[in-house]
Specification:
The protein has about 350 residues and is of the alpha/beta class. It is built from eleven helices and 13 strands. Helix 3 packs across helix 4 and helix 5 runs parallel beside helix 6.
């Protein structure tokens, strides 16, 4: 059995070919797609966060709205760039969204990836400390966030407060109990996956990672997952961790599917995410269901993960993306043993 959700980057463009031509279109359609996915039996609605781009950015209003409109589906991010985040304000936002969703929030966070502008986090008021990189800063923000999620008081109360205080030091409110175990780290390398395991975070691994061995993407990603699980066990955590991978997977079941996805990327790609980091981008899958099933059986990383996020082309609109999700749930997942 495997949890299956969708992942949307929330692109919009004024092009007449797009069904999402404005930010309002994307936000409202994201809510509608989450509702449709829940009705189809999917397990998760996840959203990517990018700043300075015509894509989804500040996630918590959207997560809260999805939480209010749904009742079962997991609601998450993949991922929030922690270089841009105030961990204390994020505690309040995340706590409120999780309470509205009644404990269904699954927050993926990360040090972030290359953005649309140079050092965009500086415009948000953040700067790495002496001798630190922006990645160090993102991980430090994450560590503060995790510490605050423990819910222990740390702030000295005012002796003459506007409202009565509980005894002792004060914490940020609202705090949602149990959210700490539903924090995921988006790891781009084996080392950061191990670091996440030591801190007790679940693992999110996307279709992009550092090319560390020159092997096929899915083999490297499977090795990353195994390294993570070994580090988790060594750290002595008492619960079972969760691991997700994301993929572009399309079952070609009608002429529309063949027109949109029939000439997809079928090989891994090599590139550089910055001047120093050679990266490997995982292939996509698009084929008739029987052929698609055979292809997916060879993907070692999907086999290792307990959660699969289907990257959806949100600009095609809610109806077609619901069709994409339904095709996987009904024509592929049962044959793969995921349902």
């Amino acid at each position: 059995m495997k949890k299956i959700g969708f992942l949307s980057f929330g692109h919009w463009t004024p092009s007449p070919q797009s069904q999402a031509r404005s930010a309002a279109d994307v936000l409202l359609q994201s809510i509608d797609l989450a509702v449709a996915a829940e009705e189809l039996g999917a397990d998760g609605a996840y959203f990517r966060v990018h700043h300075f781009a015509r894509q989804l950015a500040s996630p918590f209003p959207l997560l809260a709205a999805v939480g209010a409109r749904t009742s079962r589906i997991e609601i998450g991010t993949a991922v929030i760039d922690m270089r841009y985040e105030n961990p204390m304000y994020m505690i309040e936002d995340a706590g409120a969204a999780d309470l509205i969703a009644k404990g269904r929030l699954q927050l993926g966070i990360s040090r972030g990836s290359p953005e649309q502008v140079i050092d965009g986090w500086r415009y948000f008021g953040y700067q790495p400390g002496e001798g630190q990189s922006d990645a160090d800063m993102g991980r430090r923000h994450a560590e503060i966030f995790l510490e605050l999620l423990r819910g222990e008081g740390f702030a000295q109360p005012n002796p003459r407060p506007m409202f009565p205080n509980p005894p002792g030091l004060l914490r940020l409110e609202p705090l949602s109990q149990g959210l700490r175990e539903r924090i995921w780290w988006g790891a781009g390398s084996n080392a950061t996956a191990v670091w996440a395991a030591k801190l007790g975070m679940n693992l999110q691994s996307s279709t992009l990672k550092s090319d560390e061995t020159g092997e096929a993407f899915h083999i490297q990603q499977a090795a990353q997952i195994r390294a993570y699980r070994a580090a988790w066990k060594e750290a002595g955590h008492t619960r079972e961790p969760r691991v997700s991978v994301s993929r572009s997977i399309f079952a070609l079941v009608d002429d529309r599917d063949r027109a949109y996805f029939g000439n997809g990327q079928e090989e891994d790609q090599i590139g550089f995410i910055d001047e120093r980091t050679r990266a490997i981008f995982g292939r996509g899958y698009a084929a008739e269901p029987d052929k698609l099933i055979e292809q997916l059986k060879t993907d070692e990383a999907i086999a290792e993960a307990d959660t699969l996020l289907l990257t959806v082309p949100n600009q095609l609109g809610v109806a077609h993306n619901a069709h994409v999700i339904e095709s996987i749930l009904t024509q592929v997942a049962p044959a793969m043993g995921w349902r």
